[in-house]
Known about the structure:
This protein is α+β, with helices and mostly antiparallel strands and 425 residues long. It has a domain at 3-232: Phosphatase 2c, domain 1 (4-Layer Sandwich). It is built from ten helices and 16 strands. The strands form three sheets. Strands 1, 2, 3, 4, 5, 6, 7, 8, 9 and 10 form a ten-stranded antiparallel β-sheet that branches. It has a three-stranded antiparallel β-sheet with strand order 12-11-13. Strands 14-16-15 form a three-stranded mixed β-sheet, covered by helices on one side. Helix 1 (3-20) runs antiparallel to helix 2 (79-94), helix 4 (180-196) packs antiparallel against helix 5 (201-216) and helix 5 (201-216) runs antiparallel to helix 6. Zinc ion (ZN) binds at residues 257, 259-260, 262, 275, 277-278, 280.
Amino acid sequence: MNKKSKYLFLGLILFFTVFTVIGEVSATCNIIVITDPSGTDPNGVAAGSMSFAKNMFQSSFLMSKNQQFAVLSGGEGNSSDRVKAIGECVAALQNGASPSDAASVASSFNGIRLVVGGPNIGAAIGGSFDAYVVEEQDDGTITITGYSTTSGGLAVLPAGHKGAIIHLRNSEGNPLSGTADSVRYQTAVNMAKMIRDGYPATRILGEAMREVATDSGEQYGGGGVNLVSRVSTGDMFTPTAMNDTGYPMSENYTKTCPTCGWSVGFPEAENYQVCPIDGSQLKTTNACDALINAITVTSNTTSVSTYGSDRAGLSSTTEAIVQASVNKYGYNPDKIAGSINKGIHNGLLMGVNYVEPKDISVKENSHAVGVYYEPLADGRTSPPWNLPINSFILTIIGTIQTAIGIVLVLLVVFRSRLLENFQQR
Ligand SMILES: [Zn+2]
């Protein structure tokens, strides 16, 4: 066993151990949509997971940024089996397995499901599922085929074809139990229509999640990924603590100021009608539109990178401020620096020093802006690292992330504690 595999092995053992204590994990809606099988359209392949159940962390909608595949998971089996299945599935994909082979891994575990896919490789669902495969045939017709299996099954959307796979079951305790069969079918039909009408995969994913959340009650994020542009909703909608549900995707998510980028999440947003900084009318965005916005890349989207501080919330707030500044003033480093400094002054951005135009790197042609922060020295606004794991293990986790090139995002569980500590101050 070489050094890299040893770290990987140690890391996976740790990963299993941590997830074993989480208890029941059950993603009951998994969707993958492919509207451009060639991978050219930046929004042409998207995937996401949701559930009525708890613990819908990012492990339920993984994406490999290096190899451009998604692994969605769920099922009624126990969570350590689910994590083992994910580990084996990812390992198979790393070794060049097809989506069918990788999704078939789920069949060796009781009650576990895996959905695998990406640009150029098609998609497949394996294990325990109730699913429809939407597929554009060679003659241009779109077929919708149902598949059902309690274990050991496989359904495939072949490479080179536009289409989608949707799995949906009702979780135990969901007050809308009994709706899954009809909602699964209706959502598949509506996805087929949107594929026919030329909508991009990211939009179709968001609309499908909206329909599932509203009509079947399997509504807690979860989240979604854009496989072509390699963007994820990250922890936008995932639970902030273990044994908790994520954000209800049928509800409003934020109010945002179009002028300065100030934003506030619900339920606090109920208290604001206009921007407290400049009085502008706030724009309300519901959760599925927030998901679509987060993973859809448009010509107006500015890609913002934040350097110098990894404080929770800093990069997303910076992104909103920079986007608002660019919309208003264009790609002007002086104006962007001014907007950021106003944000720091107003307390939107905390724990960093004021920036100068030289700290702003602007690449107008690629719509990219880099912001170089200098963290405040006194550490007053930095959350403490009183994690239940030591730094040696953190290094191992970092190593697995590098080694297998996938954002396993184990740390999200711990980061939520940091965030809570910070918010309690
Ligand atoms: Zn404002």
